[in-house]
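Minutes, project huddle
Topic: does the predicted pose make sense with magnesium ion bound?
PN asked that the exact inputs be recorded in the minutes so nobody has to dig through chat later. Recorded below.
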Amino acid sequence: MTVVLRNVSKTFTARQNEPLTALQDISAEVSNGEFLCILGPSGCGKTTLLRMIGGLDHPTSGEIEVEGTPVTGPDPRLAMIFQEYSLYPWRTVRANVGFGLQMRGMPHEEREEIVTRFIGLVGLEGFGDSYPYELSGGMRQRVAVARALATDPAVLLMDEPFGALDAQTRNRMQKELLLIWEKTKKTVIFVTHSVDEAVYLADRIMVLSPRPGRIAGIYDVDIPRPRDRTSIEFAGLRRDVLELIDRLEDGQ
Amino acid sequence: MRWYLKVLPPFFLLLAWEVAAILINNSFILPTPASVAAVLLSPTADILGSGSIIDNALLSVWRVLLGFGLAVLCAVPIGIIIGRYRTVEELVNPIIQLLRPIPPLAWIPLALAWFKIGLLSIVFIIFIGSFFPILINSIDGVRRVNRTWIETAAIYGAKGWKLLAYVILPAAAPAIWTGLRVGFGIAWMCVVAAEMLPGTTSGIGYLIMYSYNWGQVQVIIAGMIVIGIIGIAVDILFREVEKRKFQWQEMNR
Ligand SMILES: Nc1ncnc2c1ncn2[C@@H]1O[C@H](COP(=O)(O)OP(=O)(O)OP(=O)(O)O)[C@@H](O)[C@H]1O
Ligand SMILES: [Mg+2]
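Predicted holo structure (tokens), as shared on screen:
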């Protein structure tokens, strides 16, 4: 197992407010090379869960292990792609992609070759010397993907990376992400609140309930790739997941 | 706007000045533009045995560089520390809020008491004047660094000086730069005022004060023009660098 979550709970205790339980008793195992989608309504704790796996935050109780050892803080085995715009605007595309390697002390010459390779992998040849403000939203997220992959993590954590993109760009990015995933064989944990996106991408879908987030359902997606959004199986699974989410919301 | 429209207002100002000078007909109150221009056109000529306009202006610039440089060296690091650590901010904020509204010129008596008349008190006044704008902008710049940028760095293992050098400083640089620009403007005002103190014997502020004692109003006005030109030139310099280096800031989002 690459990632193991054991009874992970998170309660925020802000100074003035009463304690807020964001996540409750999440247990899951993600196997090597798996593409897991975490699906859930806004505020159910998806980002919190991902931040904890990435070592940016700590569970109130429970354990998180990656490749058999617990996560205690930011960890070279994990890379995260954020929901918000996270590129460094004062750095060129090349310098952004090389950022992780640079922070880990890799010398400039060594970085260059890797940077070129990953810029190519995400299809941004020729944009290496551009600045993020010269790129479209989709291109920016590609840079973020390249930056994450360049450090060769075992697990790629993605927090609604395509949430801000228009539908068309989003579909194209999904397709390309799958190609990259197939090439690099990374374990991916991908957060989204789009059922369509989850069914299109995932090997497995984990549905979280509204706050406090608990696991409300797990779906194995056996539809062969490339998936056809108009196929009967696709529509069937999407309907099942949507029904579960509707029931969860009514239950509130 | 067309260039000839832009030169119209200054042209009319000059014309009005000329007319007023002729009407008043008293060079101790308002000398003609021509007599001021004559002073400006020979900037290296000695004035009343006090040195030339250029020499005195350069001396003032040098004093500003000393006081301003010292302020930068102190205010930027302190600002970064305060902006970075909440507890430090809460500790020192009352002191800053207390000292900040005191005009730099109100420090003059204290400066004289401590350092006597001379370079040291002038530099001290300039230091005080530029310290706070630089400090406030540095604190603000560091505090406003996008949390996602810091967390991205954390994900890739950046801590300590690497985080500072590669993320916090570049992200706060535009705000710090604004602080430097504002701080320099105030420093320049301070030097001119400080040089007017009795006992000072050099500098552009001294020169125009001294010219007043001799009724040389054309030198006063010429000196004021030089002060203005240097102020604008430095400001333009700061803005040019801002435009080139921090272009990402405006384009961001
Ligand atoms: N640092 C924090 N302190 C206090 N409460 C927090 C903190 N971070 C998140 N929360 C709360 O925890 C809950 C879950 O937040 P989280 O950002 O994980 O949700 P999400 O599922 O990612 O939502 P979205 O889909 O809108 O991104 C929210 O109610 C949020 O207000
Ligand atoms: Mg979120």
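Observations noted during the meeting:
- The longest helix of chain B spans residues 160-195.
- Chain B touches chain A through 23 residues (CB under 8 Å).
No decisions taken; revisit at the next huddle.
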